């Protein structure tokens, strides 16, 4: 099996952009996705990757819309000639809120992107990979919050636990097609996602600082450190690993 074409969602910045850069460096041609509002950042990432000799195509698509995800996969098959690795990375944070005050709208919004989005990416990529008949890799974004619940974060935690369940179940079904399914579970990584956890200036930073203090390695993780794990999961060498959600969190939680 030769793995050479990857699609990465939520790739305009943060962990997704780092994964796209790393997989391109590893020799993959890449399809990079984000919402239409992120087109300028995607354009600049595309130019960077193309200048390094790889092919790169942009898909401005909402990962929670089934028809858009299906079109994105179909279009990747046409433009890049196949699909070997799907990295369902796109996700959003949610406000720190007591359960008793969580709105149904907040539940729907976070679950729509973090859980339904990963489900759709796995589903349509798996259909394409099975039809191709050359195996593949499905890789999803879970979280430390998908391993351990925490107060005031019920909705986000539920969405990331969902990714683990989906990953384990899909792994059992798809192994016979040579498709492995794994997820990454980052701790506290230096991206802008934490801006969503608090509307008040500085409060999000306070929460972050507290978490960093509790992290044995004593710092935030870097997006490229998550990309390095994804590089392994996307490689031929990881063929015997499937159904796993791998913690990468500076020792903040052991499982
Ligand atoms: P980020 O910097 O906020 O990047 C996420 C990207 O996904 C953004 O560009 C965002 O665009 C995009 N996106 C949001 N909704 C989308 C949709 N419906 N369709 C397509 N793209 C969409 O986040 P990150 O920190 O890199 O996190 C990447 C993934 O890792 C997420 O799933 C996150 O939950 C997970 N994670 C992150 C951490 C961490 O500490 N950073 C820890 C654990 C897990 P907009 O800005 O336009 O919404």
From TrEMBL:
Protein name in UniProt: NAD(P)-binding protein
Naturally occurring in which organism (per UniProt): Macrolepiota fuliginosa MF-IS2
Sample GO molecular function, one term: oxidoreductase activity, acting on the CH-OH group of donors, NAD or NADP as acceptor
Protein keywords: NADP
Top-level taxon: Eukaryota
Any single biological process term in GO: fatty acid biosynthetic process
The keyword Cell inner membrane is annotated on this UniProt entry: no
Any Pfam family hit: adh_short_C2
Classification via InterPro entries: NAD(P)-bd_dom_sf, Sc_DH/Rdtase_CS, SDR_fam
PROSITE patterns membership: ADH_SHORT
């Amino acid at each position: 099996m030769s793995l050479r074409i990857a699609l990465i969602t939520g790739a305009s910045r943060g962990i997704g952009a780092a994964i796209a850069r790393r997989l391109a460096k590893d020799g993959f041609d890449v399809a990079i996705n984000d919402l239409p509002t992120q087109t300028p950042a995607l354009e600049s990432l595309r130019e960077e990757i193309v200048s390094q000799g790889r092919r790169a195509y942009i898909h401005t698509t909402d990962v929670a819309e089934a028809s858009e995800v299906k079109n994105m996969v179909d279009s990747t098959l046409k433009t890049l000639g196949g699909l070997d690795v799907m990295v369902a990375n796109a996700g959003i944070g949610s406000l720190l809120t007591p359960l008793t005050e969580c709105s149904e709208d907040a539940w729907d919004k976070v679950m729509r992107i973090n859980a339904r989005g990963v489900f759709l990416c796995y589903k349509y990529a798996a259909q394409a990979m099975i039809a191709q008949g050359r195996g593949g890799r499905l890789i999803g974004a879970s979280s430390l919050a998908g391993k351990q619940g925490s107060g005031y974060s019920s909705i986000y935690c539920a969405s990331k636990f969902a990714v683990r369940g989906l990953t384990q179940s899909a792994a059992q079904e798809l192994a016979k097609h040579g498709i492995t399914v794994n997820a990454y579970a980052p701790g506290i990584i230096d991206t802008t996602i934490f801006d969503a956890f608090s509307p008040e200036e500085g409060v999000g930073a306070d929460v972050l600082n507290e978490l960093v203090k509790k992290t044995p390695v004593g710092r935030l993780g870097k997006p490229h450190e998550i990309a390095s794990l994804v590089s392994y999961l996307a490689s031929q060498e990881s063929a015997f690993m499937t159904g796993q959600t791998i913690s990468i969190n500076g020792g903040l939680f052991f499982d």
